Amino acid sequence: MISQFFVLSQRGDHIVFRDYRGEVPKGSAEIFFRKVKFWNDDEAEEAPPVFNVDGVNYIHVKVAGLFFVVTTMVNVSPSLLLELLQRIARVTKDYLGVLNEDSLRKNFILVYELLDEVIDFGYPQTTSTEVLKSYIFNEPIMVDAGRLPPLGPAAMFMQGTKRMPGTAVTKSVVATEPGGKKREEIFVDIIERISVTFSSSGYILTSEIDGTIQMKSYLTGNPEIRLALNEDLSIGRTASSSYDYRSSSGGGAVILDDCNFHESVHLDSFDIDRTLHLIPPDGEFAVMNYRITQEFKPPFRVTALIEEAGPSRAEVLLKIRADFSANVTANTIVVQMPVPSYTMRASFELEAGAVGQTTDFKEGSRRIEWNLKKIVGGSEHTLRAKLTFSQESHGNLTKEAGPVNMNFTIPMYNTSKLQVRYLQIAKKSKTYNPYRWVRYVTQANSYVARL
Amino acid sequence: MSGHDSKYFSTTKKGEIPELKEELNSQYKDKRKDAVKKVIAAMTVGKDVSSLFTDVVNCMQTENLELKKLVYLYLINYAKSQPDLAILAVNTFVKDSQDPNPLIRALAVRTMGCIRVDKITEYLCDPLQRCLKDDDPYVRKTAAICVAKLYDINAELVEDRGFLEALKDLISDNNPMVVANAVAALAEIQDSSTRPIFEITSHTLSKLLTALNECTEWGQVFILDSLSRYKAADAREAENIVERVTPRLQHANCAVVLSAVKIILLQMELITSTDVVRNLCKKMAPPLVTLLSAEPEIQYVALRNINLIVQKRPTILAHEIKVFFCKYNDPIYVKMEKLEIMIKLASDRNIDQVLLEFKEYATEVDVDFVRKAVRAIGRCAIKLERAAERCISVLLELIKIKVNYVVQEAIIVIKDIFRRYPNTYESIIATLCESLDTLDEPEAKASMIWIIGEYAERIDNADELLESFLETFPEEPALVQLQLLTATGKLFLEKPTEGPQQMIQAVLNNATVETDNPDLRDRAYIYWRLLSTDPEAAKDVVLAEKPVISDDSNQLDSSLLDDLLANISTLSSVYHKPPEAFVSRVKTAPRADDEEFADTAETGYSESPSQGVDGASPSSSAGTSSNVPVKQPAAPAAPAPMPDLLGDLMGMDNSIVPVDEPTAPSGPPLPVLLPSTTGQGLQISAQLVRRDGQIFYDISFDNGTQTVLDGFMIQFNKNTFGLAAGGALQVSPLQPGTSARTLLPMVAFQNLSPGAPSSLLQVAVKNNQQPVWYFNDKIPMHAFFGEDGKMERTSFLEAWKSLPDDNEFSKEFPSSVVSSIDATVEHLAASNVFFIAKRKNSNKDVLYMSAKIPRGIPFLIELTAAVGVPGVKCAVKTPNKEMVALFFEAMESLLK
């Protein structure tokens, strides 16, 4: 099983190091760091998450800019170790509020205490913040979260919109608030990451939604919760529709390809009325993950053109149209397009009256970048760029440039139409009325338009 | 508590240690706690605070759990270096293990188990016994793991004190956490022993399946992984297991899903109903695809596993090829794996879609990815005959972009396409030739030259094209030189005119006179001789028809694939290597558990399970640890080809190869392979041997020269079994007139030589003073006979029947004599040829035996002999006919 667990900073400093079995030779953390840093002697290459050096197996994930690593000498399940590393990061964050080098160092004794309960002799025991609470005695020391971006998908609620209580997501699950009394509240976030590939003619080649219903509960006494989803939700594409599901959709019903649930969820009535029952444990966790390949309307239409304009010049036209309602606003939009490797200069021409837009030509990675602070639903934006080449092009510009890739976040928008119809909390008394936050967000995962 | 822990890292003006000492002995609790925290802080940044041992231990007797835990943390770290002082803590530990607070009881056992000091271990047994039967499940689950810890320190103690039985009892515990930990502990103990300790019966099976539904996600993985070792009795039971495991596919934890997939795949082998199998495949597809929505790290593991699964059962994901299309933001290691799976799933139906993707990838930024995409197009062409033309037109399109590395990669794959479909697509050669000048990578150059040579008669200006390469002939890498030589040869044979003749003259001259590459020189001489003596024969050789190739470049052979599929969801399935290839832990010796044979076996092996004491310093030599298992040799009656077991065990502490022991001067003399007359005074004797499940090259050097020889290195040529050195050759400088003998660990299946199996092992040895010595050795196949080669009587019969008759071979060993049945059986068992049954046939005895070589290839053996009379008939049945000749060689040498 697990021989060692350690956390390294980006510079390779030990932040946490725990040896459970004493069987791995000394210096493993250094060996690991060197291997990852200089994988294949090429910075473009990235070390795979699982590799073996001199008989020692190293398994790692990167969370919040830190390396979480375990070593083992035996043939164990690497997915178990990878899941465990993610979970350790999450539990630590539940305790510390923020996860970064600073908070780990300030709380190292608490972290060691946690690690002793989470792993015994290399075997994972429990990673439930709820269960751990009864065995952990150290109190977390909070670090100033103000300047530090929080971890995880919930981080996106911090930007732009003012509707969210800003500190909630960086609040420790166990620490008592400075004011003394804990605020009763629960967060349910429906987070959808969408992947769309447009062909050069604008036709949708692939589209997919990876969704998560994430919960973070600060309720005392762990009351039971009922979470109701769309009544007409159905699961599993039928075999016949696996290829022509596009034509069969449109009825409005949400069809999930597949989904899975957190172990605290009872599915007794799920088949009947699409309601999930659970007693949420403390800490952040995914109630349900789902995957959809049913056709959906992409929030943005992207068109890109590149044309020769003289012997060693070309012109690029990028156009994006927001296909969602005007009361929704997308933010932090980045549009990137690789350009031919012999591009020397790029000059940009923004549309008239453009606000909050910037452009850049990244010479090193030879691509142009277009940043937009926000895009209101229904609007359309264009960018023109003039490229100057160091040589004549081969007349194959569309092959040497692109594809266009887009990144964005759209709060209070969900692509799949999967809804939380209601969130019911079993009442302890008449006056008990905790805050409930149900939040939707759509994020680009891989949003690509080919040339 | 106030302030920040990080303040403990700050140093003080006074000496740090004395100040801490003072604080640790303070009368105030809080001050003591703060002091311990400072000590721990110092410890974690690597400062030596072991001198405070007594003072810290004094803080141990406290009701404050927070402080107690800190002290325990300190103890685990330093008890090893202060074993005499550690004993001070024993009393508190024993007292704590009876504390009314279950947390303290559990903490005490957990910590004692982590302190690998003999004196503490002695005192651990009684508390552990109590805690295994504690009322509180938290204590029991901690105790269960503690048994595994104790087994690692002192296996004998665990068996003597009956902890194994107690652990087995915990499988029936009513708390699923306890069950899960008991299963994990038993599985680990089983892994380090070859004796059956943890066998799942149908009774435990149902208990485990019940616990599965209730325990934590981690526990579910432990249980599922243990269940994967269970062999269902029949199809019905298999279906039953699958039905209970299938709901796990809905779990949010990917490890649970993959472990469940493993069990379902294994049990599916037994299920006969095609409907059930089809249905299961359908159920597995969505969860497997969902794994690709997880973090990229998990996706990578999932993809490596899916790669294996689609090789075995391509139907599962046949319709899901789209999910393997690369995303823009996938890390490169994910993209590479996706490409591999796309090629595997490509079919006539989806090839257009797939080619469109590949074409897109081939214009991306990442060079390695682009190359792989181009290669993927070529592999699809080779795989799908009907799509070959479309693939080629995509490749031509890519060549036209004139990105240098794309062109070169395309030419390499087009050469393969030409080999696969000879005389079909030559029309594109003209286009390829346009890029001739831009080729600068050896493989691309060599491929282009091959194409020109192969189609020399149809390319009008083939001589000009080749000539352009010839100018730089001496500077080219060997790969290109060899191709140039052959291509010029082909050209000359096709067009025996003046120009080509001059070219071949020049090349032959260059290749024979000015090169020091033996391969090139040899080939040139052969051509030269052929061309000058018999041009017709030269034609037959050089222009011979070549066998058609297929795309098996990334296909695993079926026995390895089965081996890996049984290891789904383990590191082995990620590396695509069998576990033996990277796990070095050694199991305890096998015990013959055959009843007929029990008497002799019992005296053959002593009771003590072998496990080194010291896990922390695996390379320490065996002589220093007190608990090194002493195993009696199997007392071979006949002189065995193996040196005695005792001698080599001493070098095998905790399974690690004795790199720090240069000499192992034991055993009978080795066969001389390099006589001192050939070796300018150096004599080398060597032999392959198998010890404790590992193959070693037992090699000895005699320095008969007048100088000190040092810097010995060894290398093995490609061979049938892919044997290669598993480490560096450890030979200390050799004084004149002395000799050294060492055991070089070997690894198998590294660099396989193609062609018919052969026992030839070519070895090269060099040192700093002499030229390189080459010599040949024979690979005795019995070195590969595995400890797991024993078969049950029933499975032997079944296997015998299931193999067709033309897989049976027999051979007479006229000079072999069986002087006593028992001695022969025992002698063969020592080489992992296991006795199964015997019968009498008139005056002759017939023995049935089994052996197995890696990758699960069994040999079913029948020996017929009359006791005391020379002549043994050996018959064998095996699925792998090619190995039979080697097998007979091995048996004959074993029976000498």
UniProtKB/TrEMBL annotation, chain A:
As for family, the record states: Belongs to the adaptor complexes medium subunit family.
Query: What name does this protein carry?
Result: MHD domain-containing protein
Q: Name one GO biological process term.
A: vesicle-mediated transport
InterPro entries referenced in this protein's UniProt entry, alphabetically: Adaptor_comp_med_subunit (IPR050431), AP2_Mu_C_sf (IPR036168), AP_mu_sigma_su (IPR022775), Clathrin_mu (IPR001392), Clathrin_mu_CS (IPR018240), Longin-like_dom_sf (IPR011012), MHD (IPR028565)
Recorded hits in Gene3D superfamilies, A to Z, give: 3.30.450.60, Mu homology domain, subdomain B
Q: Where in the cell is it found?
A: Endomembrane system
Q: PANTHER family, per this entry?
A: AP COMPLEX SUBUNIT MU
Report keywords, A-Z: Membrane, Protein transport, Transport
- Report the residue ranges that make up the MHD domain in this protein: 183-450
Domain of life, source organism: Eukaryota
Cellular component terms per the entry's GO annotation: clathrin adaptor complex; endomembrane system
From TrEMBL, chain B:
Protein name as annotated: Beta-adaptin-like protein
Q: Which residues form the Clathrin adaptor alpha/beta/gamma-adaptin appendage Ig-like subdomain domain?
A: 662-776
Q: According to the lineage, what is the superkingdom?
A: Eukaryota
What are the Low complexity biased-composition ranges? 615-626
State the similarity comment. Belongs to the adaptor complexes large subunit family.
Q: What is the lineage of its organism?
A: Eukaryota, Viridiplantae, Streptophyta, Embryophyta, Tracheophyta
UniProt cross-references to InterPro entries, sorted A to Z:
AP_beta (IPR026739), AP_complex_bsu_1_2_4 (IPR016342), ARM-like (IPR011989), ARM-type_fold (IPR016024), B-adaptin_app_sub_C (IPR015151), Clathrin/coatomer_adapt-like_N (IPR002553), Clathrin_a/b/g-adaptin_app_Ig (IPR008152), Clathrin_app_Ig-like_sf (IPR013041)
User: What are the residue boundaries of the Beta-adaptin appendage C-terminal subdomain domain, all occurrences included?
Assistant: 785-896
Region described as Disordered: spans on this chain: 597-655
Q: Which UniProt keywords apply?
A: Cytoplasmic vesicle, Golgi apparatus, Membrane, Protein transport, Transport
Q: Extract the Gene3D superfamilies matched here.
A: 2.60.40.1150, Leucine-rich Repeat Variant (1.25.10.10), TATA-Binding Protein (3.30.310.10)
Q: How does it assemble?
A: Adaptor protein complexes are heterotetramers composed of two large adaptins (beta-type subunit and alpha-type or delta-type or epsilon-type or gamma-type subunit), a medium adaptin (mu-type subunit) and a small adaptin (sigma-type subunit).
Say which species the protein is native to: Oryza sativa subsp. indica (Rice)
Q: Name one process (GO BP) from the record.
A: intracellular protein transport
Main localization (coarse): membrane
GO CC annotation terms, alphabetical: clathrin adaptor complex; clathrin-coated vesicle membrane; Golgi apparatus
Give the way it sits in the membrane. Peripheral membrane protein
**Function as written in the Swiss-Prot or TrEMBL entry:** Subunit of clathrin-associated adaptor protein complex that plays a role in protein sorting in the late-Golgi/trans-Golgi network (TGN) and/or endosomes. The AP complexes mediate both the recruitment of clathrin to membranes and the recognition of sorting signals within the cytosolic tails of transmembrane cargo molecules.
Xref: Pfam families = Adaptin_N, Alpha_adaptinC2, B2-adapt-app_C
Q: Where in the cell is it found?
A: Cytoplasmic vesicle, Clathrin-coated vesicle membrane; Golgi apparatus, trans-Golgi network
GO MF terms here are:
clathrin binding
